[in-house]
Amino acid sequence: MSTQQNTSEPSSASSVPAASAGPAKPSRITLVAGLTALEGVALVVGGIYMLVMGLLGQPESPQQAEMGGLTLVALGLIPLIAARGLLRRRSWSRGPALITQIMGLPVAWTLLRSHGVLIPAGIVLAAVVLTALYQLVRPTTIDELGIRRPGATPPDA
Question: pTM above the 0.85 mark?
């Protein structure tokens, strides 16, 4: 009898992890977390580039290049932390993610009004920012993050 139980346990054990893994993350939250993380990585990479060029290159003002690089790295950490929070469905993560997207709008606009190779970069940034903003303000995303809307009754009531 114990042999039968041992042979039947692996088959039932293989189905247990799938059931105990918890609810799957909605694709919209994964999408917005990925877009937010992409923006964060771009800021960190740009900041590191500015730091390296400030230290090794010949900028007009090394201090300004270094401080700008440090600022971009620090600003890049905000969307990266927000993306991690979004993947974990933390309600606090929506605020920093929204702020990141709102700050990206004027940058995209500036790139779109420039010349040459910056215009396609502005188009890509605008698409990323607008997609993430749309996903962040959707009522279904708000509900998935467990954020109560004004006037809504608590789920326990």
Answer: no
